[in-house]
Model the fold of this input.
Amino acid sequence: MHLLRNDIPIPGDERPRRDTNGPWRTMAVGESFFMRKAKSAEAGCYYRNSQEDGRRFTWQERTEEVDGEQVRGARVWRTA
Done:
């Protein structure tokens, strides 16, 4: 059964942009970083939020060695 409430205000129309949790804004063209445990959908979400002022990125889901162990994630490159 669902509890209905009317004392919680409706959120505003605009949601703030999600923090990208990465060095997206400071990267130079050709630089890359590895997002541990990130899947393509998550990398794509961050990627879309970070494309401002003509910046472009590409990513690839892959496994890399981090601290001596194999970790799945996504490598992200700035292309423009």
